[in-house]
Each structure stands twice: as C-alpha cells, then as structure tokens.
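Form 12-C: Joint structure prediction
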Amino acid sequence: MNKKRGIIGKILNFLLTTVINVPVMLLTLFCMFPVVWMLYSSVKSEKEFALSIISFPKTFVIQNYTNAIKIGQMNICLSNSVKASILTVIIVLVLGFITGLIFGRYDFKFKKPLYIMFLSGMLIPVYSLLVPVFIEMKTLNLNDNIYAISLIYGACGLPLAIFLITSYVSAIPKEIEEAAIIDGASFNAIIFKIMMPICIPILGTVLILSFLNAWNEFPFALVLLGKNTKTIPIGLTYFTGMYSVKYTQLLAGLSIATLPVVIIYFVCYKKIIAGMVAGSVKG
Amino acid sequence: MKGGDNLKKDFSKPKSWMLYSYLAPSVLLFVSFSIVPMAMAVYYSFFNWSGGPMKKFVGLNNYLLLIKDNTFWKSCLNNIFIASSCVVFQLGIAFIISALLCSKLLKFKEFHRAIIFFPVVLSAVVVGFLFRMIYSSDNGLLNFFLSNLGLSSFIQPWLDNPKIALIFVTVPIVWQWIGMYVVIYMTSIKSIPDEIYESCAIDGATGFRQAIYITFPMIMDTIKVSVVLAISGSMKIFEHIYVMTGGGPGTSTMVMAQYSYKSSFIMNKMGYGSTIAVGILCVSLSFILISQLLFERGKRRYE
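Section 2 - Result
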C-alpha cells in the first residue's frame, strides 16, 4: 500500500516537474531565439539563407562581416562607439564616485536638494532634452564631436551611478576610515586610498552599466553626430537604408553591434541585473 | 557620549568648501546637460522657431495648437495602447514566469534568469531591426513559420497594414522588457517568508492557489512600482518605432517621442517640437500620478 503510494507520488512529482520545466524552458529559448538566430545567420552564405532562413550554417562566410565593415563603414562606427563609451565610463566613474561618496558619507547644507536634483534626472525623458541640447551644442560648436557627446552621456549616466554609489557607501561602517583619520590621513587619502578599494564592486557595476548605456544610446547620437562621427546604432540605420545591402550582411552588422554586449553580459550578468534592477526600482 | 560624537565628527569632517569644490564638476555637468536644457525646452515652447536666428514669440499659441493637433493625440493614444499592453502582458507574463522560477521543482534557475533578462541589455535599435527582419515579407521568420505550419493564409505585410501595425510594433517592446520585471518580482517573492507558504500548504493551498492568494498580495507593492515603471517606460518608446516603421503607415504607429523628433528635426519646427516635448513630460507625469492615485484608492477599499 505504502509502496504503491510512493510510486504514484513519484510519478505525480515527475509529471509536475515536467509541466513546470518544459514550458519555462521553451519560453526561455523563445526569449533567446531571435538573438541566436541573428548570430548564426550572420555567417551563412546568401544562397543558404535564401534556401532556408532557419537552418544552421553549413559554410562559414566571414565576408559578410568584412562587407558590412566596408559598405556600412562599421570600422569608423566601431572606433567612434569605443571612444564615446570609454570616455563616458571615465566621466561617470570619476564624477559618480566622488559625488556618491560625498552624498553617502558627509553632511552639508545643500545635501538633500542636490541629491534630489540628481535623482530627478532619472525621471526626465531624454526626448524633452533633444532640441535644447542640440542648440546648446551647436552654439558651443560641439555638435558632430564624438568626445563632446560623452559629456551628455556622462550627464545622463550620473544619476544612476550616484544613486548606486551613495547607497553602497552609506552601508560601509564608519569605523573603517576612523582609524585613518586618527592617523592623520588627508581627505584625498581617505577618498582614494581607503574608500575607493572598498567600493570596487559597485564601481564595477557602474562601469558596466554606463558602458552599455553609452554603447546602445541612440537619440542624442541621431541628432548630434554626422557622417564621420556616427556611432554603431546610427551606422546601422545608414546601413539598412542602402538598397544593395543583403540580409546576411545586415545580420552581420547587427551582430557587430551586439557581440560586445553579449560578451559583457554573460561575463558579468549578475552585476548587470542587480545594478539595473536597483536603479529602476528606486528611480 | 554626545560630546565624543561631536568631537569625532569635527575631526573627520572636511571643510564644506572642500566638499562643494569636489561636487562642483558633477553638478556643473549635470545642470548644464539636464536641468538647463529642460528649462530651455519650456522656454522654446513659447516660440515659433525653425532653429535659425529668427525666433518669434507666440505665447501659448503652440500649446493651443498642440491641444488641437490630431497627430499628437493619435500618438498619445498609441503610447497608451503600448503602455496598457506592457502593463497587461509584460507584467502578467513576468508574474507567471517569476512564480514558476521560484518554484522548488524548477531546474536551471540561474540559466533561465540570465537568459530571460538578456534582451533588456540589447540595444533598442538592434531589437527594432531584428523584428523588422522577423516581420519582413520576403525573408521573414514569422512568415516562414506560418507557411510551415500551414497557415499561409494569415500571411500579411505585418508592418504595412495600418490596422495591425501597432500591435506588431508593440510585441518587441513587450518582449524586450519582460526580464526586468521577472527579476524584480523574483527578488520580491524570495523575500516572502517560507513559513507563510508552509502554513498555507497545511491549509491545503498549493501551486496555482498559492500564487493567487499569497504571492500576489504579498508582492502588491512591487507590482505597483512595476506598473509605474512600465507606464513611464512606454512613454519613452522611440527607437523601436523609429527603426521599424518611422511612425507609419500614415500615423498608425506614431508615438509621442517620434512625433516630437519628427517635428523638431525633420520638419524643423524647433519651437513646436519643444512644445510636444513638454507635452510628453506632462502626459507621462500625469499617467504616473493617476496610476498611483488609483492604487491608493484600491488599497483603501481593500482595507
């Protein structure tokens, strides 16, 4: 009797496990499929792609990539995107760290209004800023300048960075720097020699998030950048506008834009997920 | 005790001018590229201006035009359609997935979480192009699947049919952001104490009923936050539309951000474009406010 029940229980359990696991697995695969399809189709030959758009590649046509780089000027776009993203990361890291640290550690008169001002930045829709920023940059003669656009990306990335760093710093026990203060360490020494090493994990999160945001940013790049300063997302829109472009080349172009994101994501997805969720819920 | 605290504070506290000088660069950067432009947008919205030296003050005229502008209200309605689809499908699907992901029977949890979140970090431009290819009439994946399933009769120009285009541009938007809410919900569900589930298992509630009667009310606050997030997120939709349809055919998939961009930079109406931008800000803030008020009310009724 007991044994029978055990078997039925096991079967039920197995059925339930399948009922839960299989649909979720299918859904996960569906989530991933468009991107995987893009990546493997980007190395198919034109003929293969026309024959069956879903089959795995039998050949490995790297020319799709070289053509995408040549026709779509992806080399220019890549170097521009790298420049803008790295400069943005530096701006956000340095300014975000100092500002977040001060907000998290010290009290001063205008702390609250300043902090609220930065946080409100997460609510302002970028599209309200397009026209005035465009005019601003044009008057300063900084439009069509890949380094200048990093300033804007930096300003847009600051609120999230400051929020993350401030909450991280306020959770660090004060005793840590008190010893150093008694030893007579200067303000600079406390910031850079003591607090910075402790903050490395959150700075890593900020680094990745600001890099991804700058890499993917579209609207500002669209209105501010020209032919020689275009970043990858803008380059893609130029590229698809051309009539001669083949599907496989287009997929190669999309893959060039996506591969860095894929690699960064799967290396440090835990940090990315935690940082983005914290930023969006509190923001 | 108090004296000692004070002493420590004085000892460790740098001079305030020093703090301000360290804050100055970030404040300067942020103010000059966020706060000042926001104020300028409001200022420009009172002018008739094409970006050149001629700027004509027209007072509230732009706003009167905006109120009568059919395209603006059409795009506003489209935004509302996208927002409500996001609230219903994004949040609904995310709730189901996260409830399943938290079940003890599920295997490879970390794998699922990582993959489902992945589209969130993708560039919206890439997602737009990818779905444009999926919907494409000659080599699209969607048509390929339909014809292989023997449903060729359903095949349509997905993005060129003004009646259905809006639905099909909403799909990638919903798809891309599900992972965000799955992770938000999962964090929240994990914080529900196990004892509650155990005691209700004793009472005989399992699986589906647990999800409805325990998980759902317990994470209500998180759900509210997600609704506000989904609404404010869908008010900002731009890249997907720009890449997939450009707002067409006609104005059938036009959204507010796309309309503002088009008026300002394609039609060169910088003043009116700014008016639309201010309009976007007002509309999205009021939707967030309304959704919060509704929740407050619902809560009161519930209590």
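Section 3 - Comments
Chain A touches chain B through 89 residues (CB under 8 Å). Chain A has two domains: 2-41, 63-282.
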